[in-house]
Amino acid sequence: MLPVTLRAQQCSERRIAKRGNVDMNESTSNPQRVIVMGVSGCGKTSVGERLAEALEGRFIDGDTYHSATSVAKMSRGEPLNDDDRAGWLTRLSELVREGRDNRETVVIGCSALKREYRDLLRGGDDALCFVHLAGTREVLLERLKARQDHFFKGEAMLDSQLATLESPGTDEAVTVNIDASLDDVVALSVQGVSQRTRHAS
Ligand SMILES: Nc1ncnc2c1ncn2[C@@H]1O[C@H](COP(=O)(O)OP(=O)(O)OP(=O)(O)O)[C@@H](O)[C@H]1O
Ligand SMILES: O=C(O)[C@H](O)[C@@H](O)[C@H](O)[C@H](O)CO
Q1: Would the CA dihedral through 66, 77, 146, 118 be positive or negative?
Q2: Residue 85 vs residues 20, 110, 148, 167, 184: alpha-carbon distances, Å
Q3: What is the pLDDT of residues 151-185, one digit of tens each?
Q4: Which domain holds residue 100?
Q5: Which PANTHER family match (predicted)?
Q6: Does 113 fall in a domain?
């Protein structure tokens, strides 16, 4: 049996294998809260799940916290507005806070389109790290069209989200271009989060 301190140290070392052509040998020793953000179809769920795995944390799909009214609205192809998103963002910021208080690594997929939404989420943890998955309308539409069985409907909703999006600058987020393989997008996200965490500490 290893001494407790040594076991704890080993647990906190996150060794990540090389994936695609990006070296993922990053190690992060502190639990952290991460939001994977961007418009519909950018890959929040696909990338978020893999990022959480790489950081040895838990993934939460923010979409599962929308109210039934919001889901029904989106199913009819109607975009959400600030009022529709307010309660949802508050709930997600509570999950961020719980993760911080429990010293847990939590990765949440959430569109977080406006700065004021991100401010609300940061209320749960001022060290909250955002990874913005950014892509052209063309790539996004291609991905949405290829996807089945999802409540998101139509180009109009994508256009509304693109119009609403206030792209975060480097002060707020790590931005990763989604026009690459999933492996590479995940690897760049891991690298971005690790670098940001190192700079913040
Ligand atoms: N880098 C990638 N290369 C190819 N396909 C991808 C990539 N990333 C995601 N996809 C695919 O694109 C589609 C959209 O991804 P995903 O559902 O993860 O997006 P999302 O941001 O969670 O969407 P939403 O906000 O609408 O729930 C999925 O079918 C997914 O498999
Ligand atoms: O802020 C929003 O308008 C919503 O979060 C959307 O991004 C949905 O979750 C997504 O469109 C589902 O596909």
Answers
A1: negative
A2: 36, 11, 24, 18, 31
A3: 556 788 899 999 999 999 999 999 999 999 999 99
A4: 31-200
A5: GLUCONOKINASE-RELATED (PTHR43442:SF3)
A6: yes
